[in-house]
Design goal:
This protein is mainly alpha-helical and 332 residues long. It has 16 helices and no strands.
Length: 332
């Protein structure tokens, strides 16, 4: 009887522990080779590498030269992808605590949280990616290397002390604005060495990149802060949205979206003089997004919702990628 009682007690304890355990955090593949490989790939955030590095680098090139790049430009894109992938890897290391606290599966099921990749392996991946990117940058141009090294240093300080830019109000937005300017300069240095800028490009190109930066580096990052508001608080990060609160953060993201889109489309249609179908579609998308953004912001000012904040952030990203592609097509 005593033995049966003990067994029943142990079984009850096991059942209670099982009911409290978050099974969705267990990655069944993490002990397998395929699981580790997929974990390393996810650390690099391949989707971001497409909508940011591929689309942005092509758009800036076309904005400066007025034509599509040659095949040699793929080396520059690869350089940008390697450095950005390294930055994304380090960012996942720095965000580990806030990702653990997130209620969103896209955050709480990242490879480091699940354990499919160790912190040591992630550090190794980040350093290797940075090194390969720097080597390619040095081969392309010493000026591109200077921009690349500046981006590497900034990317490290974005996620780690002493600056820890992503955990300081307004500093995260300034990081991304600086990131975009360095990106623009790197593309310009490539063009100076391997191609040639079109006549009178400077005013239009600068207006375009400023519009892009206001929309994405300022508006989109505020939307990202808003999406991560709860887990950033839980992880001890004092971001812009934590300082401002959800209402003001949502409104400022909307205002910056409107300003950025206005400057961006003005540069394409008026300064570049591209009045074709691509510019027309850009205008339509901008109007549609502004309406959607306004409605989401109104919902968020009435009552903060993780779902609405996620829609706002993803809407910024989708609009950004589409407008970059259409900006390129406007020159064709």
């Amino acid at each position: 009887m005593v033995t049966e009682s003990i067994e029943m007690t142990q079984a009850g304890t096991t059942a209670d522990e099982s009911s409290r355990f978050d099974w969705h955090l267990v990655d069944p593949r993490r002990s397998t080779f395929a699981g580790k490989v997929m974990g390393h790939i996810r650390l690099a955030r391949p989707a971001q590498l497409i909508w940011l590095d591929l689309c942005l680098s092509l758009c800036i090139f076309v904005g400066i030269t007025g034509h599509m790049p040659p095949s040699h430009y793929l080396w520059f894109i690869l350089t940008a992808v390697l450095i950005d992938a390294g930055a994304c890897t380090l960012n996942d290391i720095g965000d580990l605590d806030s990702d653990k606290a997130s209620t969103e599966g896209n955050r709480s099921e990242r490879p480091l949280v699940l354990g499919s990749v160790s912190k040591r392996a992630a550090w190794t991946q980040g350093i290797v990616l940075f090194a390969l990117g720097a080597l390619l940058a040095a081969w392309l141009s010493p000026y591109i290397l200077a921009c690349a090294l500046a981006l590497v240093v900034l990317s490290y300080q974005y996620s780690f002390p002493p600056l820890r830019m992503d955990a300081r109000p307004y500093v995260q937005q300034m990081f991304w604005f600086t990131f975009g300017i360095l990106y623009f300069m790197a593309v310009y240095f490539y063009i100076i060495r391997y191609d040639h800028p079109m006549h009178g490009f400077l005013q239009a190109a600068l207006a375009m990149i400023i519009g892009v930066q206001v929309f994405a580096a300022l508006g989109e990052t505020l939307a990202k802060d808003l999406r991560d508001l709860d887990n950033d608080k839980a992880g001890g990060k004092y971001t812009t949205s934590v300082l401002l609160g959800p209402t003001r953060t949502a409104r400022y993201a909307f205002y910056l979206s409107c300003v950025g889109l206005s400057i961006w489309i003005f540069s394409i249609i008026v300064l570049y003089g591209n009045w074709g179908p691509a510019a027309l579609v850009m205008g339509i998308i901008a109007v549609l997004w502004t309406i959607i953004c306004f409605r989401l912001v109104r919902e968020l000012t009435d009552h903060y919702s993780k779902a609405s904040a996620r829609k706002l952030h993803l809407g910024f990203i989708l609009t950004f990628a589409l407008l970059l592609i259409l900006s390129m097509l406007s020159f064709v």
